[in-house]
Specification:
- The complex is a heterodimer of chains A (471) and B (224).
- With 471 residues, chain A is of the alpha/beta class.
- Helices cover 32% and strands 16% of the residues of chain A.
- Chain A has a five-stranded parallel beta sheet, with helices on both faces. In chain A, strands 17-16-15-18-19 form a five-stranded parallel beta sheet.
- In chain A, strand 3, helix 2 (39-48) and strand 4 form a beta-alpha-beta unit.
- In chain A, helix 2 packs across helix 5 and helix 6 runs parallel beside helix 8 (217-225).
- The N and C termini of chain A lie far apart (50 Å).
- Chain B is an alpha/beta fold and 224 residues long.
- Chain B has helices spanning 21-24, 44-47, 94-102, 114-121, 132-144, 173-181, 185-190, 193-206, 214-223; strands at 7-13, 79-81, 106-109, 126-129, 149-153, 158-160, 166-168.
- Chain B has a seven-stranded mixed beta sheet.
- The longest helix of chain B has 14 residues, at 193-206.
- The chains are: A alpha/beta (471), B alpha/beta (224).
- The interface between A and B is large, with 85 and 65 residues.
């Protein structure tokens, strides 16, 4: 019998019961909550007179609606009345049901996918879910982690389980060594460009090979975060020494004897050498260049030294049609050089790229330089209060501010513009976020997905530019 | 949840691939803390010529005459015909809530994004996967014939064309059962509460670090 993949192991450990048709009840170790996808779930519990099955499995923090500018006071002073109600509703629900919350004003508050690993609330080998598709982020720690809808949020609250069918196994193997100036974001954008936004649908993706072994845990989070943009609900990387080192000493990580016992188990969380994957896709990491998205789907990506593609050269009519719409929406011409695309806004942040290493990488490019006069607004939004504090201790805030960036408070911010941070219509934004859908960052806004280094370089140049020229 | 019955209805064609959940229901409408009332803002940025805001009366807003759902021939449609990877992007259940609230009970496409696909079943929407050629053919038929209707029979797993020709579709038996009976997942799972408890007891022995008392630990940290 063939060995098991990492996903097989995580799945098998969490099966509570299995029906003959393959439908299984899967136990959930950690449930993260935020204000947008939870109110209707709590309301459902209340209406049915149900209580959370295991209160301590849950951790809540507001992030989507949170203003990133200084407030006069607590959440009751949020200007937008509807945002305010949502944030206050989470506070009230957490209190009523006894769930631990890091509310606004708590230094640990931040984007839920930054906070979980940072606090050690996400531990290797866990099943982690959240009413947010970017929950795949936590797979970087060797977890089975994926997004769920609000009905499932209610289901997990009430039963600590999910009804699921097992996905198939996909291995994406990237070997070789990345070029200087090429980071985790470029790797994942390149993968999505190659396999398409539905390439991973139905699969749990394991990212393997030298590139991911060499990558930091935060880099792995960036990669796993965007597994969903390749269609896969879950992305993951095997546990190694780096994983264990990362978890050690975090507030909710085990200590003493319990730590030793946990580490012993975590060391088994990798695919067996003879494990069989349904699909294996290999890339050469040394060939990956800095990437930039030109269109309105995360697969519409080109090399920074490339040109915007021509729909007339696309044989699939549905695809060609999509490309034409995208060109029109983005205000670009086929054949245009990536480096000729102007930049009006810059957003460094989001659950993809708002961790300390992301901010360091961007600051390295920005240091001693100035944001171009062309750029109307350049934002840096740290992923959590603790990331912000750390960055300030390292003086990164000063580097950004001196260059002309605004240094903001933590939250999801302009990644999806549910708070006041919005991209105006027809403006091009160099964004470190994860989705370039129409209207995502603001109605009519034009998003270009890039790495933090590339966003920083674009801010300085006023157009997209190869960050390798800045190093 | 209401039981899913047999249905004969007008089909509306949405001829674009990778329709994402941001397009189905833009983020400004996610601020509601209710499950209902999202219908008027379904496909808001494509459907209206102005920028929509939550809480607005949509009946007076300028409609985009080119958008398919604004065309008189598709009024009252309950079946949406779509292209590949429908519902990609965010996990927001507001997307199926908006589709349902607008009146769609069935979505037909060559493929769906998984989280969205799953969310449909939880909200009484039947997503049907058909081969690309069949979907292509349906697009042609719908566009050629005003008032084109399909009959959806979940029990029999069939679609019937106006000319009486039948297309069979596959659906997961458990999900089919739940839709037909209008079953609540939570109630079903809680029938296995003893098994969940037994699993937890076993795991507490095997992997006790998974059962850390978050609130107690946070409390201690607060005191330092």
């Amino acid at each position: 019998m063939a060995g098991k993949t990492l996903y097989d192991k995580l799945w098998d450990e969490h099966v509570v019961r299995q029906e003959e048709d393959g439908t299984a009840l899967i136990y959930i170790d950690r449930h993260l909550l935020h204000e947008v996808t939870s109110p209707q779930a709590f309301e459902g519990l209340r209406l049915a007179g149900r209580k959370p099955w295991r209160v301590d499995a849950n951790l809540a923090t507001p992030d989507h609606n949170v203003p990133t500018t200084e407030l006069k006071g607590g959440p009751e002073t949020i200007e937008d009345p509807i945002s305010r109600i949502q944030v206050l509703t989470l506070d009230r629900n957490a209190k009523e049901f006894g769930i631990l919350e890091f509310p606004m004003g708590d230094p640990r508050q931040g984007i839920v996918h930054v906070v979980g690993p940072e606090e050690g609330a996400t531990l290797p080998g866990m099943t982690v879910v959240c009413g947010d598709s970017h929950t795949s982020t936590h797979g970087a720690l060797g977890c089975l982690a994926h997004g769920i809808g609000t009905s499932e949020v209610e289901h997990v609250l009430a039963t600590q389980c999910l009804i699921q069918k097992k996905m198939k196994n996909m291995l994406i193997k990237v070997d070789g060594q990345l070029q200087p100036g090429v980071g985790p974001k470029d790797v994942i954008l390149y993968i999505i460009r190659e396999i398409g936004t539905a390439g991973g649908t139905g699969y749990a993706i394991e990212f393997g090979g030298q590139v991911f072994r060499d990558m930091s845990i935060e880099g792995r989070m960036t990669v796993c975060n965007m597994a969903i943009e390749a269609g896969a609900r879950a992305g993951m990387v095997a546990v190694d020494e780096k994983t264990i080192e990362y978890v050690k000493g975090r507030p909710f990580a085990p200590t003493g004897e319990l730590w030793d016992k946990a580490v012993e188990h975590w060391k088994t969380l990798h695919s067996d050498p003879d494990a069989e994957f349904d699909v294996v896709i290999e890339f050469d990491g040394s060939q990956i260049k800095p990437q930039v998205s030109w269109g309105t789907s995360p697969e519409m990506v080109i090399d920074i030294d490339g040109t915007v593609p021509n729909p007339d050269h696309e044989s699939d009519p549905v695809k060609a049609n999509g490309m034409r719409r995208a060109l029109e929406y983005m205000g670009l011409e086929a054949g245009m050089k990536a480096t000729d695309i102007p930049v009006d806004y810059v957003f460094i942040g989001s659950c993809t790229n708002s961790r300390i290493e992301d901010l360091r990488a961007a600051a390295e490019v920005v240091r001693g330089r100035k944001v171009s006069d062309r750029v109307e607004q350049a934002l840096v939004v740290p992923g959590s209060g603790l990331v912000k504090k750390q960055a300030e201790e390292e003086g990164l805030d000063v580097i950004f501010k001196e260059a002309g960036f605004e240094w903001r408070n933590p939250g999801c911010s302009m990644c999806l513009a549910m708070n006041a941070d919005r991209l105006p219509p027809k403006k091009h934004c160099a964004s470190t976020s994860n989705r370039n859908f129409e209207g995502r960052q603001g109605a009519g806004g034009r998003t270009h997905l890039v790495s933090p280094q590339m966003a920083a370089a674009a801010a300085i140049a006023g157009h997209f530019v190869d960050v390798r020229e800045f190093l | 949840m209401e039981k899913f019955g047999r249905l004969t209805a007008i089909v509306a064609p949405l001829d674009r691939a990778n329709v994402d959940t941001d397009a189905i229901i833009p983020k400004q409408f996610l601020k509601s803390i209710r499950r209902t009332g999202f219908g008027p803002n379904l496909f808001d940025e494509w459907r209206y010529l102005d920028v929509g805001e939550p809480g607005q009366d949509c009946s007076n807003r300028p409609l985009n005459p080119d958008f398919v759902l604004n065309q008189p021939r598709y009024q009252g449609a309950k079946i949406l015909l779509a292209r590949e990877n429908f519902g990609c992007g965010s996990s927001r259940e507001h997307a199926p809530w908006a589709l349902k609230d607008y009146g769609f009970d069935v979505i037909i496409a060559p493929s769906f994004a998984e989280i969205f696909f799953n969310n449909c079943f939880k909200n009484g929407i039947l997503p049907i996967v058909l081969p690309e050629e069949t979907v292509d053919q349906l697009f042609k038929e719908v566009e050629a014939q005003e008032g084109y209707m399909l009959t959806v029979d979940l029990e029999a797993q069939t679609l019937t064309r106006p000319d009486g020709e039948v297309i069979r579709f596959e659906v997961d038996p458990f999900r089919r059962h739940c839709l037909l009976e209008g079953l609540d997942d939570i109630g079903l799972t809680l029938q296995h509460a003893d098994e969940i408890r037994a699993y937890e007891e076993r795991r507490k022995q095997e992997a006790p670090w998974l059962f850390m008392h978050l609130r107690e630990i946070a409390e201690k940290y607060n005191q330092i």
